[in-house]
Amino acid sequence: MSDNLHTNRKPGDPETTGHSWDGIEEFNNPMPRWWVYVFYLCIAFALIYSVLYPAWPLVNRATPGILGWSTRGDVKAEMTAWHDQNKAIQAKLVATPLAEIKADPALAQFATNAGGAVFRTWCAQCHGSGAAGNKGFPNLLDDDWLWGGTLQDIHFTVTHGVRNADDGDARYSQMPAFGKDGILDQTQIRDVVQYVMSLSNAATDPKAAEAGKTVFAENCAACHGENAKGDRTQGAPNLTDAIWLYGGDRKTLTETVTNARFGVMPAWGKRLSDADIQAVTYYVHSLGGGE
Amino acid sequence: MTAPDTTTDPLYTAREPIFPRRVRGTFRNLKWVIMVVTLGIYYVTPWIRWDRGPSLPDQAVLIDLANRRFFFFWIEIWPHEFYFVAGLLIMAGLGLFLFTSALGRVWCGYTCPQTVWTDLFILVERWIEGDRNNRLRLHRQKMNAHKLRLRLTKWVAWLLIGLATGGAWVFYFADAPTLLVNLVTLQAPAVAYLTLAVLTFTTFAFGGFAREQICIYACPWPRIQAAMMDEDTITVAYREWRGEPRAKGKNRRRAEMQERVARAEAEVAAAGPKQGGSPFVPMPGMPKGVGGEIPAKDSLGDCIDCNACVNVCPMGIDIRDGQQMACITCALCIDACDEVMEKIGKPRGLIGYMALTDEKLERAGGHPRRIWKHIFRPRTILYTALWSAVGVGLLVALFLRQPIGLTVAPVRNPIYVTMSDGSIRNTYDVRLRNMQHGARPFEISMDPVPGLTMTLEGTEGATVSVPADETRLQRVYITAAPGSAPAAAERTPVRVWVDDANGADRVKDDTVFFGKGK
Question: Domain A175-261: what homologous superfamily?
Answer without folding.
Answer: Cytochrome c-like domain (1.10.760.10)
